[in-house]
Design goal:
Number of strands of chain A: 9
Strand order of the largest sheet of chain A: 2-3-4-1-5-6-8
Oligomer: heterodimer
Strand content of chain B: under 5%
Shape of chain B: globular
Helix content of chain B: 55-70%
Strand content of chain A: 5-15%
Structural class of chain A: alpha/beta
Largest sheet of chain A: 7 strands, mixed
Shape of chain A: elongated
Mean pLDDT of chain B: 86
Radius of gyration of chain B: 17 Å
């Protein structure tokens, strides 16, 4: 039976913590949530010598204050679970910022081991950390690692075992100056009188937190019998000033330590800093962002066209082959008119999906997408959200489901709910086929610009809705936003291709499951009752369409469009498949475009209105389900469905009426 | 330092060229201009494309302005301006390739009279100037990463 060591892995975001955790645990991981909160918890194990080491990956944090759920989770684990070792992953290229967390972990009395990660990168930049000196000053072991190549992992495990076998008392503390130290002493002597409290929390740490006005520490104090005495002492003090003073003292300590342990670590202007001066510039930031977005959609539309034509030809041939070689009429119709036509009309847009996700992966890999959140911060803040909310919204360009799940990163519950409600307005990849079909048919060479305009409209509606919710249903101040901008890098072609394939595969898998199911149902509804003309007004689908038509008639939409929109609730791509079935053009895009152009119902204004409606109306069933799961409320789910559809109807109405004047 | 005068001049010329091309492209796009002059310079009528040209122009002009104030940060504007120029030149070049496939490989309808000149736009030929500058100043742009 091997002895167990519990290790908590702490560290700032983006320091390679997850890579190191993976290097330590391999595939032996369990993923869940921390009790009572939606913060991901990862636990893994590793055998080393005579020990089984259980490694818990704590959320990435810059400090251990109580400003975010992540910070509270991390520090509560260290205080309550008392892991044998706290392993802090430190980015060797940015010691100054990382050491702030170190000072807080030391204050917490943790038995600390430092992993000086990315040491290869630091050395390539001419920075050299004397880790012997660092150990000597901090009195904690420091091991150089390169998590990506597993360098230093064995040494790190040896040191963890060594620290476990030879525990010393953490003896480092930061001096805060006479005035503050006196108050800390007074607080400690009061807190000492509560035996339960004394056994639960490191008293110096708790005193420091109380002096900083830490909300979580003050909450804990309510359970203490000495709570009143502490409150009396604190009542005459300005904790905001003390918090700033103590932060200054910690940085002072770091500032005096660094020159002694690190050569070449002085602040230098990097290429990333220079580029950021321009791309995050107050005046140029947003126009540059919009230009790049436009370029992305222009390319998504223009470069995909020949490939779409090739797919179109293939499915045209396949449809003809089915019709010519299957004698059973109903089966030929099911395969030809239903499955080949429906699936073909959706597969047609695979090139657009692949190109869009490839470009998004390039932008993400280069580090630019992180800047987008930063650039949008001021706008987001003006509507009562934080810039961080823009990250889930950006993910919404791909798919609303992970976007809504990503709202878990928002600490403030109201921020989270608002972001959840507005994220579906960001145009997901599934809506793209609808735009490509309609914009390509009715706006020709301007299609890329029209599609870009729709994406911008989605962002604007999301922002306006957030403002509305923040000033009515979900009032409140947004949390402060601190975000680290990763350095710019040349995006990896391999990673971008893999990301593109992963997203494209999801789309293709949906084609093989949901879409086939959807088009089969549409085929059944279009073929029965028996004897009616396929897809005619007398078929079940026609009856259904006429039933819904009055709801969308003011928008100029007829029963065919109404039916397509209903089926779009299953998956937005089905809108195109449905139109293909109802216009009898099957998978042939040219034929469907021709049919739409020939239909007097379809004017450019109606087409634009339909694109606006598709962009904004109730998201697909998967997204609605995830809103229910993440908000934990049927009420919010219902509200999201109703609100989005209402907004879609209103804006489509305005588009059709206004577009009628402009476009005819 | 001695070469920053060249960069300053370059950012002014390119900033002006992009801005003028952007204004003409927007003018044609919204129907204010319909001149043979624009046609001869391969400037199409594209409102959004014109806006993009204006943005790139603004970055170069900002760089020129920064150099004039004797701030070395101007190099950052020139660098980003060149990057944006190259990105948009690549976007249009890839569109040209796609249209070439439509015309010569698929013989698609509407592309019967297409030639590469049909897609020659300011973003492409001004992008070539930016590419030349990038190759010439590559060393200057290799800041510490």
């Amino acid at each position: 039976m091997k002895q167990k060591i519990t290790v908590a892995v702490a560290g700032n975001p983006n320091v390679g913590k997850t890579t190191l955790f993976n290097a330590l645990t391999g595939a032996r991981q369990k993923v869940g949530n921390w009790a009572g909160v939606t913060v991901e918890k990862k636990v893994g194990t590793r055998e080393h010598g005579n020990y089984e080491i259980e490694i818990v990956d704590l959320p990435g944090t810059y400090s251990l204050t109580a400003y975010s759920m992540d910070e509270v989770v991390a520090r509560d684990f260290i205080i309550n679970e008392k892991p044998d070792i706290v392993l802090q992953v430190v980015d060797s290229t940015n010691l100054e910022r990382n050491m702030y967390l170190t000072t807080q972990l030391l204050e917490l009395g943790s038995r600390l081991v430092l992993a000086l990660n990315m040491s290869d990168l630091a050395e390539s930049r001419g920075e050299s950390v004397d880790h012997d000196k660092l150990q000597e000053f901090l009195k904690v072991p420091a091991i150089k690692t390169v998590a990506s190549s597993k360098e230093g992992i064995t040494l790190l495990l040896d040191e963890i075992v060594n620290q476990f076998e030879n525990p010393g008392q953490p003896e480092h503390e930061i001096g805060y100056g006479k005035e503050l130290e006196d108050i800390i002493c007074k607080l400690e002597s009061i807190l000492e009188k509560d035996e339960v409290f004394s056994s639960l929390y490191p008293l110096r740490w708790l005193s420091v937190k109380l002096l900083e006005g830490d909300a979580d520490a003050l909450e804990k104090l309510r359970e203490s019998k000495v709570g009143k005495d502490v409150q009396n002492l604190l009542s005459g003090l300005d904790t905001d000033i003390y918090e700033a003073e103590m932060a200054d003292k910690r940085y002072e300590f770091i500032g005096s330590l660094l020159p002694q342990v690190c050569t070449g670590c002085s602040e230098q202007v990097t290429a990333s800093d220079l580029i950021d001066k321009v791309v995050t510039n107050k005046y140029l930031g947003i126009p540059i962002f919009l230009s790049l977005m436009w370029g992305m959609f222009e390319l998504t539309f223009a470069f995909a066209t020949p490939f779409m034509d090739m797919i179109d030809m293939f499915f045209g041939w396949l449809g003809g082959f089915v019709a010519a070689n299957i004698e059973t009429q109903w089966l030929a119709s099911l395969l030809g008119d239903g499955i080949v036509a429906g699936v073909g009309s959706v597969v047609l847009f695979v090139p657009n999906i692949f190109i869009l996700f490839f470009i998004l992966a390039l932008l993400e890999g280069s580090g630019y997408l992180a800047r987008a959140a930063f650039i949008m911060d001021r706008i987001m803040y003006s509507v009562g959200l934080q810039g961080k909310s823009f990250i889930p919204m950006l993910m919404g360009f791909g798919c609303s489901v992970p976007a809504i799940m990503a709202t878990r990163t928002l600490e403030d519950e109201k921020d989270r709910l608002v972001t959840m409600l507005v994220a579906p307005f960001m145009s997901c990849g599934a809506r793209l086929p609808v735009y490509v079909l309609l914009a390509g048919t009715f706006f020709g060479r301007q299609a890329g610009t029209i599609i870009f305009g729709l994406y911008v409209l989605g962002i604007l509606v999301a922002i306006a809705s957030a403002k509305l919710f923040r000033s009515t249903l979900l009032r409140g101040e947004s949390s402060p936003f601190i975000m680290e901008l990763p350095p710019y890098r040349s995006p990896s072609l391999k990673t971008s291709v893999l990301h593109m394939w992963a997203q494209g595969y999801l789309y293709l898998r949906k084609v093989g499951t949901v879409i086939v199911g959807g088009v089969t149902i549409i085929w059944l509804l279009a073929s029965f009752p028996s004897g009616v003309e396929y897809g005619s007004e007398q078929s079940f689908i026609g009856i259904l369409g006429h039933l819904i038509e009055p709801l969308v008639a003011p928008l100029g939409f007829d029963w065919k469009i109404a039916v397509s929109l209903v089926f779009g609730f299953v998956a937005k791509e089905v809108v195109v498949g449905s139109l293909g079935v109802l216009y009898g053009s099957g998978e042939d895009e040219a034929l469907l475009s021709g049919a739409l152009l020939a239909d007097p119902t379809f004017t450019p204004a109606i087409a634009l209105g339909l694109m606006v409606f598709t962009l904004l109306y109730v998201p697909c069933i998967g997204t609605v389900a995830v809103i229910k799961k993440e908000s934990g409320s049927w009420r919010w789910m219902g509200f999201a469905a109703a609100y989005t559809t209402f907004v879609a109807w209103m804006l489509a109405f305005i588009t059709v009426k206004f577009g009628g004047f402009v476009l005819g | 330092m001695e070469n920053h005068k060249t960069m300053e001049l370059f950012s002014f010329i390119l900033g002006l060229s992009y801005s003028l091309a952007g204004i003409v492209q927007i003018g044609k796009g919204i129907g204010l201009l319909n001149s043979a002059f624009a046609e001869s310079l391969f400037i199409p009528g594209e409102t959004a494309g014109g806006f993009v040209l204006l943005v790139v122009g603004a970055v170069f002009i900002a760089g020129w302005n920064t150099f004039r104030a004797d701030q070395q940060e101007g190099i950052a504007y020139v660098y980003v301006g060149i990057l944006l120029s190259l990105i948009f030149a690549a976007v249009y070049m890839l569109s040209m390739v796609a249209n070439g496939m439509e015309a010569y490989l698929l013989s698609a309808e509407g592309f019967e009279n297409w030639t590469p000149l049909s897609d020659l736009k300011p973003a492409v030929y001004l992008g070539l100037a930016a590419l030349g500058a990038y190759l010439g100043w590559k060393e200057k742009f290799s800041f510490s990463a």
